[in-house]
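[Automated response] Your request has been received and processed.

Submitted sequence:
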Amino acid sequence: MILSTILPGLLLLGIVIFVHELGHFLAAKWLGVKVVKFSLGMGPEMIGFTHGDTRYCFSWVPLGGFVQMAGDHLEEDGSMPQGGPEGFLTHPWPGRVLIAIAGPFANLILAFVTFSTLYMVGITMPDYPNIMGALSDSTASYQAGLREGDAVETLAGKPVKTWRGLEDAFGERDTTQALVFGLRRAGAPLQLEVPTTQALAVARSLEPPANPAVIGAVMTGLPAYQGGLQEGDRILTVDGTPVSRFAQVSEVLRGKAGTKVMFRVQRADATREVVVTPMKDEQSADAQRALIGIEPPRTMTSTFKLGFAGAVKAGAMQTIATTGQVYAGLFTTFTRFWQVKEQMGGPVFIAQMARDAAKKGFDYWLNLMGMINLAIMSFNLLPIPLLDGGHITMALIEAVRRRGISGRTYLRFQQVGLVVVGTLFVFILSQDILRPIRRMRALDQAPRETTTVVPVQPTPR
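Generated structure:
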């Protein structure tokens, strides 16, 4: 049990850190800079061996890793080290830029490979039965003759077994021909023909069977997790509004980002009132959309996969898109820190997300690994001392000045970085420690009633 909980996180972090440090290591070796030590983990050495001029080891604190190069620190008197191109700080500036950027670049390549592999392995997506959900009489699909409960067995002559199969059949249809539905209504077969001019409007208004307002998963660190909602909770009301379908939750939450919302839920044979503060969905084009980090139960799934060429193209597009999202997230972190600080985390947070992803499936774990690679890459490229971006900045300053910097300037630059990175590190670790504590308190303090509750029935239409 413990192994299945920590192994996905350890494996993910181990791969990401190893690849990052391997990038620095290979670049340094290629440029002739002496590598003294290559360590996975920080602190005292746990186990290792020496090969050539380099000591390879695992260290006791699994919070990163490092490549120690010759001449990468000041002399005892505070002056810059003396030596030739075999030392890092005495190596020509273009080489230092390449060594510094090699680690993040290795993470970028691994992210691309991971996302491409993901599309070849297949992405598990939520699916639904091939049955019509609730259709308002104002929708094009209702006006075309479709009714709630109709089972779609064929579309444009192609067999349909799930809702995704229905979508695929629509995308592959002959757009010059009328759209023909092969239905089963109340056990009897029925054929419905939709003119070509109405086909798109009908397709856009189709509704799958509604998910009940039951929580299938709670995302670690997001508002629902902080508030104390749990997997299996049946949501009865949101801000006083009765809900019976999962989709209604997001409808009620629109425009309520940053506002405390009361959730009344049924848990086992009792009800609880849980206060949750939704956050703005930064990735949505809808400015009013708010999210709390819950998913409906997965009763059905389908797998989407691509061939090699398609997977490589999709992997590249996913890498570009995710990189943009990561930098947007970093901008939000620096400009609205207090609004997003609860979503920040370190190794423990990543391990929790890796555990949750592994429970859902290997494809979710792969997707998370791709995202973490890009997060590590993007953060390390920031022009902050001690980070790779700081080394790049110092090298470029030297290039512009056309002469090296003094040991005093270098020391001050590193001290600033130590304060910034050290403060951030302490804050993130404190979040890792406090997050599960706050979660347990939220679960324990939620008001409750011990009376049995009859589940809310869907509202008649």
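Summary generated for your ticket: The longest helix spans residues 407-445. Confidence is low (pLDDT under 50) at residues 451-461.
If you did not submit this request, please reply to this message.
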